[in-house]
């Protein structure tokens, strides 16, 4: 598969853009033990998505019964602020970029695979490994999983609830990983390690992995081949280069030094990110205050956690709150839906070595098996989370 050129893979870009898996509970192709039936639905419009993201960004104190319960975030790592606790809130730029990487902002679409779902009206996206909806929520959505704390049926049926459930898991990742800078939730770059963990705490997402070029630049959607960058760099690339100006205002996120990260699967405590690119600090960048959690300004380290002023953080030391959990929660995150930035949003297809479907084994016989195969080639960089489940 590695010998195929990108040009060859681009032949059917339009068809791939329409790829929509729905391995629902009742499907004969459901060999991944997906436990919840797909729900018919119409995908939100761009304007409706913006309302959903705005709601989810403000956290459980704002979304209330529209999403699952989410524990407080920790903030402060004595750099300089002491650890305290605060209600969970999320940078809108980050969750929009994660959702673009996961599913291209789709909860529902007309299924194209497996064969017995093809031709049905628009319904829940369900990847072959049971990633559901816009956030590709996987843990708790399979028949062998323990009963989760959230409502599985709403994960399948409600885009807002699905995305909020993703933020519940991202909160666990924030609490399970070491500090980045002073771990202030409104600083976009302080979510670097949690974003890494969201896709899997493994060396496959370590930016020092020798599989990645040491001279690579920012992972710009459209020119960042599959497998050329770890998950968090793909999300960082989306934040800088949104699909359109109507999706979000692009920011220029900073990156941590590779020498600070090391080679382990779990990132160490990191200083404030200041690099202009993922592999070089020859040029630097300021960090970003999320425009939905502050004034949208930038911060040049050292910084405080104070109340934002007109574009920059002042020199005071106002406590932003948050107790950091030093524990190591299981990597029970989501499965990546495998959006390949070099083509319009492509969800993860069934790999060629996946067990044969139950029943008739449809797919290849009618000439459409190549679509799943090609989708897998384009998205093989997507890595399954929940590796220690």
Oligomer: single chain
Q: Count of helices?
A: 11
Strand order of the largest sheet: 1-2
**Low-confidence parts:** 1-16, 302-346, 350-389
Overall mean pLDDT stands at: 78
Largest sheet: 2 strands, antiparallel
Q: How far from one another are the termini? A: 29 Å
Tell me roughly what share of residues is in helical segments.
10-25%
Strand content: under 5%
Strands, count:
6
Element string (H = helix, E = strand): HHHHEEHEEHHHHHEEH
Structural class by helix and strand composition: mainly alpha
Radius of gyration: 20 Å
- Shape designation: globular
Describe the structure concisely for a colleague.
By secondary structure, this protein is mainly α.
Plain-language structure description:
The chain is mostly helical and 389 residues long. Helices cover 24% and strands 4% of the residues. The protein has helices at residues 6-9, 13-17, 46-57, 60-63, 92-103, 152-157, 159-176, 192-199, 231-240, 258-261, 369-379, and strands at 73-75, 84-86, 108-109, 123-124, 287-288, 298-299. Strands 1-2 form a two-stranded antiparallel ribbon. Strand 1 and strand 2 (84-86) form a beta hairpin. Helix 3 runs parallel beside helix 7, helix 5 (92-103) crosses helix 9 (231-240) and helix 7 crosses helix 8 (192-199). Residues 1-16, 302-346 and 350-389 have low confidence and may be disordered.
């Amino acid at each position: 598969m590695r010998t195929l050129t990108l040009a060859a893979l681009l032949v059917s870009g339009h068809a791939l853009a329409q790829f929509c898996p729905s391995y629902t509970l009742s499907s004969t192709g459901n060999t991944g033990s997906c436990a919840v039936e797909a729900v018919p639905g119409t995908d939100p419009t761009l304007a409706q998505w913006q309302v959903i993201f705005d709601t989810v960004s403000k956290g459980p104190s704002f979304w209330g019964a529209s999403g699952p319960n989410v524990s407080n975030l920790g903030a402060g790592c004595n750099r300089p602020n002491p650890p305290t606790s605060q209600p969970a809130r999320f940078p809108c730029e980050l969750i929009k970029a994660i959702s673009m990487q996961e599913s291209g902002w789709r909860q529902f679409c007309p299924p194209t695979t497996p064969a017995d779902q093809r031709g049905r009206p628009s319904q829940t996206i369900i990847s072959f490994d049971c990633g559901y909806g816009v956030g590709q929520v996987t843990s708790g959505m399979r028949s062998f999983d323990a009963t989760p704390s959230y409502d599985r049926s709403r994960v399948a049926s409600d885009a807002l609830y699905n995305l909020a459930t993703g933020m519940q898991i991202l909160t666990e990742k924030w609490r399970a990983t070491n500090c980045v800078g002073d771990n202030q939730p409104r600083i976009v770059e302080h979510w670097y390690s949690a974003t890494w963990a969201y896709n899997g705490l493994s060396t496959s997402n370590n930016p020092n992995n020798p599989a990645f070029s040491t001279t690579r630049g920012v992972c710009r959607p459209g020119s960042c081949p599959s497998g050329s960058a770890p998950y968090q760099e793909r999300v960082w690339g989306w934040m800088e280069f949104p699909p359109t100006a109507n999706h979000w205002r692009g920011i220029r996120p900073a990156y941590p030094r590779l020498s600070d990260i090391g080679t382990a699967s779990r990132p160490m405590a990191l200083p404030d990110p200041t690099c202009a690119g993922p592999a070089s600090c020859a040029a630097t960048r300021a960090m970003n205050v999320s425009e939905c959690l502050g004034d949208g300004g930038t911060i040049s380290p050292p910084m405080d956690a104070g109340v934002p002023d007109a574009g920059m953080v002042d020199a005071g030391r106002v406590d932003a709150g948050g107790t950091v959990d030093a524990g190591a929660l299981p990597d029970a995150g989501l499965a990546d839906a495998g959006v390949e930035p070099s083509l319009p949003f492509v969800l993860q297809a069934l790999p060629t070595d996946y067990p044969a479907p139950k029943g008739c084994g449809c797919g290849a016989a009618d000439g459409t098996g190549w679509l799943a195969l090609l989708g897998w080639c384009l998205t093989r960089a997507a890595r399954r989370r929940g590796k220690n489940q």
